[in-house]
Amino acid sequence: ARTPVTVTVTGAAGQIGYALLFRIASGHLLGNDVPVRLRLLEITPALKAAEGTAMELDDCAFPLLAGIDITDDARAAFDGVNVALLVGARPRTAGMERGDLLSANGGIFKPQGEAINAGAADDVRVLVVGNPANTNALIAASHAPDVPSSRFTAMTRLDHNRAKTQLAKKAGVTVNDITNLTIWGNHSATQYPDIFNAKVNGRNAAEVVNDQAWLEGDFIPTVAKRGAAIIEARGASSAASAANAAIDHVYSWVNGTPEGDWVSAAIASDGSYGVPEGIISSFPVTSNGGEWEVVQGLEISDFSRSRIDASVAELVEERDAVRALGLI
Ligand code: NAI
Asked: Which of 28, 143, 187, 249 is catalytic?
């Protein structure tokens, strides 16, 4: 039998955690032949709720679930971790300034980065879901100097999946017919979903759609504001779709992306496409089953350039703000 892979989920008692843990335990994160050991990290007052979720995981009798540990201690949670899903974060509340939000999250992601640095397995892969995800990933990475920065990523796969469905609907096809879509930049309202390099059944998506008014007035804002639209409709934020995207991100990273296609993930920039080095920004990426690689050589129109630059500028501002606060 294979040795179980240790998967740590922070914010495990939250709503994404509730949608995520059962899919990890049933084999969707890594593959249906890979046993997993779950580590649930929560703040002390939420430990009891995490225990309740663990009881339900037990009650599923998942053949691949090798064990569950629950803790409020980051060091214990990340000791020997192979896959770390950092979901728990401090949400923005009414009247909160950006500096307060970044400080509160620095208080979470700095010690978690340190704990990953101290105890993670050599092959550790980290996905930050908790917002502001890109900058939280930057904070964690900067406190884990012994872990390659390429192992710290932030999630834009939900934006990618949202864009895929919106484009498929517009083109009158299914998501199976859409490839090579890209989310660039920050997981925020400035993100840029790029259809100029995307394909609909192998044909250039922007040419198939041929509707700049739809692109600017409908598609881009619909994708960017989808989170708010879900809250408005459901009375709660997107959780199952966010959990699904986290599963997709890690599955693609570990098991590879299909030949000829790519996905979107926020990774530390190597300077590609003029994104300042070190910024954790979303790119078109492939994986051969291990490491992300930025797809090179894509044509970037003036329209795309200005959208990418605006989102990257926001990330640079966030980086400068956390630097000024002493968080990185
Ligand atoms: P939630 O509020 O239901 O759950 C968050 C959980 O994190 C809570 O149980 C809380 O106790 C826990 N937590 C807080 N601080 C912690 C710490 N220091 N260590 C461990 N656990 C801690 O929130 P939900 O809906 O599960 O969302 C989680 C995060 O994911 C939010 O920041 C949300 O904005 C973000 N998100 C990101 C998306 C993306 O596409 N990147 C999409 C949807 C949500």
From this structure: 187
